[in-house]
Design a protein that fits this description.
This protein is α+β, with helices and mostly antiparallel strands. The chain has a single domain, classed as GIY-YIG endonuclease (3-Layer(aba) Sandwich), CATH 3.40.1440. Helix content is about 20%, strand content about 35%. It contains 3 helices and 7 strands, in the order E-E-E-E-E-E-H-E-H-H. Strand 5 and strand 6 form a beta hairpin. The longest helix is centred in the C-terminal third of the chain and has 14 residues. It is elongated and about 65 Å long.
């Protein structure tokens, strides 16, 4: 099953975003899950380079690689078990918000979870909320 944003199919993410906040819905049970997903990850690897004097030296190189957002179904073990049992075609995946920073993703995810009362209702897969955000990271950025 593919991702949608405002009713449109999403094949590529916008280049200027850090990630997105999403809603996954199980069609037969109408249970939902609110989460966030980063678009890219930073990866550090070592690379051997040859210096001008002929010696070799290892250097750390940081790359950005695309995340597994296309196949992602959340971090809830209960949700993943249902995807395995029922099949991915029994779920819808909707992007609610694109976010320009990781902090904005965390804040908007929290805001959606609290607004929808995901911990107080049985029709959500969310089992916990864990977030740490500083006001300076999001103020005037959302």
């Amino acid at each position: 099953m593919s991702w949608t944003y405002q009713g449109e199919l999403v094949n590529e993410l916008p280049e200027d975003i850090a990630g997105f906040v999403y809603l996954i819905t199980c069609i037969p049970t109408n249970r939902k899950y609110i989460g966030k997903k980063l678009a890219q990850f930073k990866r550090t690897r070592t690379k051997t380079v040859k210096l001008k004097n002929g010696t070799k030296k290892k250097r750390k190189v940081r790359d950005k690689i695309e995340s597994d957002w296309r196949e992602y179904y959340g971090s809830s073990k209960e949700l993943l078990a249902d995807v395995e049992t029922l099949g991915a075609d029994q779920f819808t995946r909707e992007i609610l918000h694109y976010c320009k920073s990781k902090s904005a993703c965390s804040y908007i995810e929290l805001r959606e979870q609290v607004k929808r009362q995901v911990l107080e209702r049985a029709d959500y897969y969310n089992g916990h909320i864990q977030v740490r955000i500083h006001k300076s990271h999001i103020f005037e950025k959302i």
